[in-house]
Give the backbone structure.
Amino acid sequence: MPGNPHDTGPGAARPPGSVSDALLAPMHALLRAIALVAGYALLAQAVATFIEILARKLFNYSFQGVDEIGGYVLAIVASFGFGYAAMTRSHTRVDLVLHRVAPGIRALIHLLATTILALIACGMLWYALQAFRETLAYQSIANSPLETPIWIPQSIWLAGFCVFALAGLFLVLRAAQLFARRDYQSLEHEVGTATPEEEIDALAHDPGAADGPTEPRS
Amino acid sequence: MIGIGGIVIGFVVILVLLVSGLHVAAVMILTAIGGIVFGLGPAMLANLGNMMWAELNSFILTAIPLYILMGEILVHSQVAQRMYRALADWLTWLPGGLLHTNVAASTAFAAISGSSVATAATIGTVAFPTFRAQRYNESWVAGSIASGATLGILIPPSINLIIYGAITETSIGALFLAGFVPGLLLALLFMLTILVAALLKPSITGAGGGQLGKDGRIARLFDLLAPLFIFVVIIGGIYQGWATPTEAAAIGVVASLLLALINRKLSFAMLHSVLLGTVRVTAMILLILTGAFILNFSMGLLGVPEQISSFVSSLDVAPLTLIVCIVLFYLLLGCFLDALAMMITTIPIMFPIILHLGYDPVWFGVFVVIMCELALLTPPVGMNLYVVQGVRKSGQLSDVMRGVLPFFGAILALVALITLFPMIVLWLPRAVGL
C-alpha cells in the first residue's frame, strides 16, 4: 500500500545524509511487495488444492501435479519470505540476556547477530546457486507426471535467496551506521528483537495495523 | 565420528550461542557447518544447496503456511469473539464461571489454529474485556488464558506436530490424531482445576460470579458450527483417509475465507494483512527448520545418534527414570529457550534415546509438544506469560505467573498419565491404522 505511514520508517524523519537512510523506505516497500506476491501464491496454491480435492471426490477427475507445484510454492515462499522476515525482525532470537545488558552492549550484539544472519544468507545464496548450476548442467527434470524442468521453479527459488542476501546486507549496513551514530534506540527498533507488545500487535486483529508493528514506525 | 564428550560440548556451545541472542536458525546452521567441517572436512558441504532444495520443495511442509493462513484468516474474522460468547452461555453455571469459558474457548480455538501464542493473543483480547466488569481474581483469569492457550499446539492442527513429523519422518496424520485425546484430557484437567479451586475458594470468581444475559443463546450456537465444521473437515478427512493434513489445511483455508466473507470481514486490507503475517511467520519457522535439517544431516554424518544410544544403554537405568530426567531437562531448558527453538534443537538428540527406550515416535511427538506447552509458561522466557500480560495491559507479570501455577500442575499430571498409560496417546492413531 503506497502511502501507508508504516512503510516510511524513522529514516524519513531524519535529514538525508547516509545511504541507509535513503534506502530504508524503498527497501521496506520492496520486501513488503515481494512478500505480498508470495502470500498470493500461497493463497492460490490453497485454492488450487481445494479445487483438486473437489474434482477428485465429486467428479472422480484428478488434475495432475497440484501437489508437485505446492512443493515448489513452499520452497519459493520460504526463500522470498526469509528476507521479509529479516526486515521485520521476525527471525526467532532468545532475548534472555539481551534485556539484561547495557544498551551499548545490546546494540553490539544486534550488529553481530545481523552480520551473522547476513553471512548465512549469502552462504545460502551461494549453495543455492551451486544447486541451480548443477540443475542446468544435467538439465534435470522432475520425476513426476508434469516432468517439470527443475530449472524453472529453482530459478525463482534462487531469486528469493538473492533478495534474502540483499536484505541481510542492507540490515548490516543499517545497523553499522546506526551503531556509529550511537542511535541505539533506532537500532533496537530496526534490527533488534520485537517486544512482546509488538508481537501481540502483529497477532492481534486490527487490519489497519497491517504488518506495521514489526516494521519501523515513524 | 564423535564421542559423547564432544556431543555434550557441542550442545553446550549451541545453548550458549542461543542465549547470547544470535538468531536461532543462524546458531543451528553455524554449529552444523562447524561439525561437518571439523569432523569430516569442507568437501562434505558441497551438497548443501541440493539438500536445501530437497527439504524445502515439499508438499507435506506446505501444511505449515496453510494452517498459519487459516488461523490468521479466522483471527481476523471475529470467529473467536462469537465462539467465546456462545460458550459462555453454557458454561458459566459451573463453579468457576467464566474461567471455564477461557479454557473451553482456548480448546475450541486450538482446534482451528496451530499456534499457542496466537491462541493466547486472540482469546486474551476477547476475554479480558468480559472480565473487567466482573471482579474475578485477575491471577486466575490470566492463568486460565495463558495455560488454556497452550492447547493450541497440542490439539490438532498443530504447527509443532507438523515440524516434529517433518524432522523425524513420522506420519503427521498419526501425530494429529494422537494429539486429540490428550488435548481434550488436558482441557478437562484444566476445568477440573478451576472447579476444585472455585469450590475451595469461591472468592476467585468475585462476588456472585456474574452472569451474562442468556437471551438468544440457542441462536448463538450457530457461531460454534462454523469452527466445528472446519475442525471436523480436518480431523475427519485425516481419520477417514480422504485428505492428507496438507489437503485438509487447504480446505480449511477456503472454509475460513467463506466464514470471513459471511461475517463481513473480508477485504483487501484484511487479506493483505493476513498474507503478510502468514509469509512472515512461515519464513521464520522454515529458516529454523532449514537449520534443523542441516544440523540433523551433520549429526548423522558424525554418528551422533549411535553414540547417544550406546551411551544411554551403558547407563543401565530404568526407562521411567530416564523419562523423569528428560522431563526435568525440558523444564530447565524451557526456562531459557523459546518453545519451538527448544523442540527443534533437542529432537536430534532426544529422538534416538526415545527409540532406544522402545517408545513410539508418535507418542514422543505428543510428549515433546506437551514439554513445549510447559516452556510457554515458565519464566523468564515463557511467551504465553508475556502475551497475556501484554493483552491485559495492567497489573504485574507476577500475577500471571502465579495464576499459571495450578494449571502447570495439571499439565504435569497429564505428562504422568501419558507416560504411565501411553495408549491415551496411541489408541486413536492405532484405531485408524496410522
About this structure: Chain B touches chain A through 79 residues (CB under 8 Å). Residues 76 and 265 of chain B are 7 Å apart (CA to CA).
